């Protein structure tokens, strides 16, 4: 791999690891970047644009989850005041997530998407060091795929 491709990959990884609230935006070619979840919270549309007819999507929330409006504390508005697009994305995040979720479930109804999701809220937090909670979350995912693995194989025609 030549150096420019490596640098691009490394830059993209650093940018996608720059989480809002926690990290500063990562600058690539004088453009600030944060984790893509701000503007594409449930990433599946690109696969459709590339022509894939069936997609498998992993959600971290149960089907009943609806994202609510995030009230931005003053310090966040201050932190991102130089980045109005980031502020706008943060303020509209719930609408975008819920729209993508609805679109995804429509694809599921049409037989074009297989959704792997927890039946209930995941016991672990977003950033969690509690090993018991992490193991429960892992076990829950493992049990889910054991129960739904055959359906996934049928969906993929394997």
TrEMBL record:
InterPro entries: Acyl_Trfase/lysoPLipase (IPR016035), DUF6363 (IPR045943). Residues 83-157 form the DUF6363 domain. Pfam families: DUF6363. It comes from the Bacteria. This is DUF6363 domain-containing protein.
């Amino acid at each position: 791999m030549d150096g420019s491709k490596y640098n691009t990959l490394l830059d993209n990884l650093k940018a996608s690891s720059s989480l809002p609230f926690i990290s500063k935006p990562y600058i690539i070619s004088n453009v600030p970047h944060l984790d893509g979840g701000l503007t594409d919270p449930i990433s599946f549309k690109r696969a459709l644009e590339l022509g894939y007819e069936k997609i498998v999507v992993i959600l971290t929330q149960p089907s009943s989850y609806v994202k609510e409006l995030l009230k931005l504390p003053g310090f966040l508005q201050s932190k991102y005041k130089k980045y109005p697009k980031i502020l706008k994305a943060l303020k509209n995040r719930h609408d975008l997530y819920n729209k993508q979720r609805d679109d995804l479930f429509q694809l599921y109804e049409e037989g074009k998407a297989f959704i792997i999701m927890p039946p209930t809220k995941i016991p672990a937090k977003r950033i969690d060091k509690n090993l018991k909670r992490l193991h429960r979350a892992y076990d829950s995912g493992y049990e889910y795929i054991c129960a739904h693995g055959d359906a996934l194989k049928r969906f993929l025609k394997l």
